[in-house]
């Protein structure tokens, strides 16, 4: 009788499997197919164009600007959103009076709407915003600092927003990991004369190495898929001359509207996938070497 129930597990996972196939597997396969066509968002006649979209992609200066922005975003965010949350987690892990307040304060930006936070930062960084007004009142600057109109200042302003908003999220992940690091190891290291810094590098970091890799992967994906921060800070324009667009902003730009080019947007999506895959493979390689 039990042998006849081999299908029972399949019935139980069928809804999740169907959801995965419809909303994940098929869209991925269809994106690859569309990247070789001239499909438009609103349908119409679609023809096969081969590798033309990819040829146009690598000849497009906007794509190279977006790719550079993505690399800079990744290079800056990866160390900051890996090390700083770990240090914050080590600090708030201690059972001190009022520490719950700091845990809540550090995590509050995470639950805030990215759009609302972006608008607040826009008001702060505007030429007539609070930061420029205070700096001018104190005599620190003669004219407004172009946080939102200079290409690199705008990019690093968006990076600062991403880091500020993500610190609490990754801190919680590290807090959970620190609970698995044996306190006896810290006590043994202290008895051997190791100070707080030495114990951090010799006990804490190796104890949460797997979590560091996990956080690194999450940061890579988040940094390369950045959209809201740059979109809100640039009011959807991509900054001066569109030089501060991310790859996701370009994909959104080409995939919408009556004149959109869904085939080109699909090719950009495959480029984003390839760019995201590279740091993930590097992190996996580093982790495997560390475990050997």
Task: Give a brief description.
The chain has helices at residues 8-34, 52-58, 61-93, 99-111, 114-125, 130-137, 151-178, 183-191, 196-207, 209-224, 228-233, 247-254, 262-291. It has 292 residues and is mainly alpha-helical.
Account of the protein in words:
The chain has one domain (52-291): MetI-like (MetI-like fold, Orthogonal Bundle), CATH 1.10.3720. Helices cover 72% and strands 0% of the residues. It has helices at 8-34, 52-58, 61-93, 99-111, 114-125, 130-137, 151-178, 183-191, 196-207, 209-224, 228-233, 247-254, 262-291. α1 crosses α13 (262-291), α3 runs antiparallel to α10 and α12 runs antiparallel to α13. The model has no long low-confidence stretch (mean pLDDT 87).
Number of helices, counting only DSSP H or I runs of 4 residues or more? 13
What is the CATH architecture descriptor? Answer: Orthogonal Bundle
Structural class, from helix and strand content? Answer: mainly alpha
Radius of gyration equals: 24 Å
Mean pLDDT: 87
**SSE arrangement, N to C:** HHHHHHHHHHHHH
**The CATH fourth-level homologous superfamily:** MetI-like
How many distinct beta strands? 0
Q: What is the total number of structural domains?
A: 1
**Which stretches are poorly predicted, pLDDT < 50 over at least 5 residues?**
none
Percent of residues in β-strands: under 5%
Helix content: over 70%
Major sheet, described briefly? none
Q: Could you name the CATH class?
A: Mainly Alpha
Note the overall shape.
Answer: globular
């Amino acid at each position: 009788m039990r042998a006849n129930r081999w299908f029972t597990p399949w019935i139980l996972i069928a809804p999740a499997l169907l959801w995965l196939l419809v909303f994940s597997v098929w869209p991925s396969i269809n994106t690859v197919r569309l990247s070789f066509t001239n499909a438009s968002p609103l349908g119409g006649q679609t023809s096969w164009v081969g590798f033309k979209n990819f040829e146009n992609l690598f000849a497009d200066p906007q794509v190279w600007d977006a790719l550079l922005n993505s690399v800079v975003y990744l290079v800056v965010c990866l160390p900051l959103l890996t090390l700083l949350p770990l240090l914050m987690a080590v600090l708030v892990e201690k059972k001190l009076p009022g520490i719950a307040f700091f845990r809540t304060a550090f995590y509050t930006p995470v639950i805030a709407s990215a759009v609302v936070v972006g608008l607040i930062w826009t008001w702060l960084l505007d030429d007539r915003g609070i930061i420029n007004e205070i700096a001018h009142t104190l005599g620190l600057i003669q004219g407004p600092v172009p946080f939102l109109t200079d290409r690199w200042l705008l990019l690093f302003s968006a990076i600062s927003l991403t880091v500020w908003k993500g610190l609490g999220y990754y801190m919680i992940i590290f807090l959970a990991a620190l609970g698995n690091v044996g306190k006896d190891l810290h006590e043994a290291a202290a008895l051997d004369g190791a100070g707080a810094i030495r114990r951090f590098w010799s006990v804490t970091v190796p104890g949460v190495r797997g979590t560091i890799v996990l956080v690194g992967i999450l940061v890579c994906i988040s940094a390369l898929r950045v959209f809201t921060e740059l979109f809100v800070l640039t009011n959807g324009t991509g900054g001066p001359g569109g030089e501060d667009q991310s790859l996701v902003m370009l994909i959104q730009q080409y995939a919408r509207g009556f004149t959109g080019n869904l085939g080109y947007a699909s090719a950009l999506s495959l480029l984003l996938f390839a760019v995201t895959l590279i740091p993930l493979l590097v992190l996996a390689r580093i982790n495997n070497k560390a475990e050997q």
